[in-house]
Write a structure and sequence with these properties.
eight-stranded parallel β-sheet; TIM Barrel; Urease, subunit C, domain 1; about 350 residues; eight-stranded mixed β-sheet; single chain; 12 helices; globular; about 25% strand; alpha/beta
Length: about 350
């Protein structure tokens, strides 16, 4: 791969600084970041880590992963945490394999989970079933990053044998479990969180976080606060169907380490208009510190899921974006693995 450099105002989310730099990229990785004098900077653009949708069903966009990526990269999205539940509900393991393989055909970082509830309930007539043995096999794969949303929260609360086997398969392989617990509060929320979170004596402990517990189903601030206080990480969801941004965004002021952004379901007409970049702009407009916003949009998903996505540090893969300002987040360029994939609203390259 070729080497090149970009210059601009570096938004260092880790150090909470903004300063002019030249970033040199070589073989898809960041070779060095060199600070330059203000007088030497010839652009007002900002360089920051790429955005990540921390929970999305690609199928709801009615696009295959490779086509979803074409719409997402122009808005600065470089990666997704993707639950292939819908296609698994119809096609089973064959559908999951299709999503993974199709996603590999484009320069975009899809991170698929193992669908935990296929069918969603015992009362559902589905096209396939994914059982605990299937989950165990999936969890052993490097390209399966987590156990996707455990929708069967009654099964968790009642310690259903098949449900607990699926959770144990994730824990034993050192992979987090995504939650799905709409309306759970108090003692029930505590039990649910404890059972889907990785035990502290696990053989393969997760790095950081509360051992793997997330939830994207909170509709009220009070519900989210309840779960945050038990150590859960909350995904603020704003998609084409469910919209919880207004109810939950103020939590980012006080809980920046435990908040992420997601869409859950994103229809193509909505994705054309914007993605995680829209949530960043709305959050900043509400007076939330830009570093907290970018921690939720860029950093927390990488750290929680241990993703192979760069965060603009020397030695990281060169996954970053260039924006005009830190108010509207109009994306000028998107880079993935050091490759320019989108520029000024258009896809530059596909494979």
């Amino acid at each position: 791969m070729s080497s090149f450099s970009v210059s601009g105002n570096f938004v260092d989310v880790h150090q909470q600084r903004i300063y002019p730099v030249t970033i040199h990229i070589e073989n898809g990785k960041i070779k060095f970041i060199r600070e330059i004098p203000d007088s030497g900077l010839t652009t007002n653009d900002y360089i920051l880590p790429g955005f990540i949708d921390s929970h999305v069903h690609i199928e709801s966009s009615m696009l295959v992963p490779s086509q979803f990526a074409r719409l997402a990269v122009v808005h600065g999205t470089v990666a997704t945490i993707s639950d292939p539940h819908e296609i698994a509900n119809v096609c089973g393991m064959e559908g999951v394999e299709f999503m993974i393989e199709n996603g590999k055909t484009v320069p975009f970082k899809f991170n698929f989970g193992a669908p935990s509830c296929v069918p969603a309930t015992v009362f559902e007539t589905a096209g396939a079933e994914v059982n605990a043995a299937d989950i165990e096999r999936l969890m052993q794969r490097d390209d399966i990053k987590y156990l996707a949303e455990m929708m069967n929260f009654p099964g968790v609360l009642n310690a259903d044998e098949e449900v607990m086997k699926k959770i144990a398969a994730a824990h034993s392989n050192g992979k987090p479990v995504d939650g799905h617990a709409p309306g759970l509060r108090g003692e029930q929320a505590k039990i649910y969180i404890e059972r889907i979170s990785q035990p502290s004596d696990a053989k393969v402990p997760l790095a950081g976080g509360f051992r793997g517990a997330t939830d994207h189903e909170c509709f009220t601030k009070e519900e989210a606060l309840d779960k945050l206080q038990y150590g859960m990480k909350i995904l603020i969801r704003e998609g084409s169907a469910a919209k919880n941004f207004e109810a939950l965004i103020d939590l980012l002021h006080d809980w920046p380490e435990q908040i992420m952004f997601c869409s859950d379901d994103k229809h193509p007409d909505s994705l054309v208009l914007g993605h995680i970049n829209q949530l960043c702009a709305r959050a900043v407009a509400k007076g939330i510190d830009v570093f907290k916003v970018l921690r939720a949009a860029c950093v927390n998903p990488v750290e929680h899921y241990k993703l192979d996505v760069g965060l603009l540090r020397e030695g990281d893969t060169a996954d970053f974006i260039i924006v005009k300002d830190l108010e509207h987040f109009a994306v000028q360029e998107t880079y993935i693995n050091g490759e320019l994939v989108a520029k000024k609203g258009k896809v530059v390259t596909t494979k």
